[in-house]
Amino acid sequence: MRLERRASVPVTLAVAAPFGAVLVALLLAGILIAMTGAPVLEAYRRILISAFGSKSSITETLTRATPLILTGLAVAVAFRTRLWNIGAEGQFYSGALVAAMLGSQHGLQLPGAALIPILMVAGAAAGAILMLAPLGLRLRFGVDEVVTTLLLNFITILTVSMMIDGPLKDPMAFGWPQSVPIVGDAFLPKLVSRSRLHIGFLIAIGLALLIWLVQERTVFGLETRAAGLNPAATTFAGIKVNRLLVKVACISGGLAGLAGAIEVLGVKGYVTTDLSPGFGYTGIIVAMLAGLNPIGVVVTAIFVATIFVGSDGMSRGLGVPSFIADVIVALSLLAVLVALVLTNYRIRR
Amino acid sequence: MTAALDLFASAGLWAAMLRIATPLIFGTLGALLCERSGVLNLGIEGIMTFGAMVGWLTVYHGGDLWLGLLAAALAGAAFGLLHALLTVPLGVSQHVAGLGITLFASSLAYFIFRLAIPVSGSPPTIVPFQVLQIPLLSNFPFLGEALFHQTAPTYVAILLALLLGYLLGATPLGLAIRIVGENPHAAEAQGLDPIAIRVGAIAFGSALMGLGGAFLTLSAFNSFFPTMVQGRGWVCIALVVFASWRPTRALLGALLFALFDAYQLRLQHIVGKAVPYQLFLMLPYVMSIVALLVMARRARVPQALMQPFRRGER
């Protein structure tokens, strides 16, 4: 038995693959749910209801999807050029930290209209810098960026912990380690009143569209794709791959940093070390499920947010541990990897 | 300043070094074996987490401590086989598959743990491995206390490193693994089966990762809690590079790393609140990056690392 590359991939197969993969993941997770003694179909029905059953649950799901769209885009953009950015989690926290720092009463003293965009740019810049460092080590010293970006996640979160335990600590927080809250002007406007959904969601979707346009319609987009598929040939074609990587690193790190800034400005208003329940790592799953397609990222981010928000509600009702959500998305990733092979190759005896 | 130097004269420091090094030795050897056959295994962090959980749960339900280790090794091998299935016959991106295994194994570990142990005030505990007194050696002044007051798995880890060094360096099987990691096509021409060898190396290497995790719950601590592996798996991946893919150097690297870690823990007590404790916690990760930097240019990477092998396809 061996695999043989398909000459051309049928479009229906390419579109059906991720859906099939998610179905397989849901089936396998269903076995685990059954093991807990809970009714499987009822559990999935409750996941859907908890995520989409009411206006408040829908806005909650979209609020949860917002950072996932941005970290998913961060990973998708990088992986496309074979820049293995596993550090979106750390970049997220660096963006959050900088936004909270500059947005507090001790930070920039600016009116809201100017303050919010500046805080977002500052957060994105922090994320970009945190991605440029490992890229620099790769280009200069040949250090693989996978491990360095991973290790930087831990270093960054400890830095956040140090700052909110020290200079940024909110004296009004009853001793809890959290940063001084941002000023009222720095909060993002709400999209739906009396909900947590903020305009960050629209920004994320706008960026997904923009990235899709750049990738599909510009020379730069083509170059990033070429550099990912065959760096040697791209260099031979006269494109400076290193320069391209620097730009991609800035965009990727910037998106993850922006995700952190938007989470602070839109939802929390301050930084803690549990601001992100793994948004950076989940971004990898979001990007892979979407086949690294920016529009697909929006869809898969909402899917993953549905699983997380829905599982919380389902867990409370049926007693299935809410870790089932992480199991479902992890299984979806593994299943989609297999599905991608089966769309690009056929099995021959 | 003298207080900081005096630390090296305490036997406790050296004993702590061996204790801290043990999970790193297991994990680094496991990752090294996978990489020597040509496959990066970033599933390590999750496999260690699962090993820690399943080993602890086995003992908690009345199993023997050694049975706990066996369960962790078998579970590690099972996740290894899954990683091997994805990366070897299917040739999926090794980075992404490994991260997927990590997410899957750790979330499954938390799920099973929560199912077996409902939320309670304080986490339930087991009776972990006790210090193994070695006749004569353990009674030696200073050295006895410094080096021979460890639990059994620590001695196993050190022996394993030497054994694996011998296996890779001086046996036909070791040579086969190395050829497959350098040039699978040449290996096939020699009548070896690169796919079988890679799958075997990943399964065995992942079993070692499982053992490394189980050491945490069965010897270093006596309970399981989420996020307890704390990036040790990633540190192991960095140590493999630092060790230039050699088992005996991996042993030295893990010991050196652990010595530094044990030292900074004691230094924290001396400097007290003057320096934020987070800076000390950062040190292991910073050191890993520095280790990568120092060795990246000099290290001899297995030539076929991260290249999938497909028959008849170059």
From TrEMBL, chain A:
Transmembrane segments: 12-41, 114-134, 146-164, 197-215, 279-311, 323-347
Keywords (A to Z) from UniProt: Cell membrane, Membrane, Transmembrane, Transmembrane helix
CC per GO annotation: plasma membrane
Membrane topology: Multi-pass membrane protein
Domain of life: Bacteria
Subcellular location: Cell membrane
InterPro entries assigned to the protein according to its UniProt record, in alphabetical order: ABC_transp_permease
Molecular function in Gene Ontology: transmembrane transporter activity
Record-linked PANTHER family: ABC TRANSPORTER, PERMEASE PROTEIN (PTHR47089), GUANOSINE ABC TRANSPORTER PERMEASE PROTEIN NUPP (PTHR47089:SF1)
Official protein name in the record: ABC transporter permease
Organism: Bradyrhizobium rifense
UniProtKB/TrEMBL annotation, chain B:
Key words of the record: Cell membrane, Membrane, Transmembrane, Transmembrane helix
GO MF, one example: transmembrane transporter activity
Pfam families: BPD_transp_2
Membrane spanning residue stretches: 12-32, 39-59, 65-86, 98-117, 129-148, 155-175, 195-221, 233-257, 277-296
InterPro entries: ABC_transp_permease
Domain of life, per lineage: Bacteria
Compartment(s) where it occurs, according to its Swiss-Prot or TrEMBL record: Cell membrane
GO CC term, one of those recorded: plasma membrane
Main location class: membrane
PANTHER family membership: ABC TRANSPORTER PERMEASE PROTEIN, SUGAR ABC TRANSPORTER INTEGRAL MEMBRANE PROTEIN-RELATED
Name of the protein described by the UniProt record: ABC transporter permease
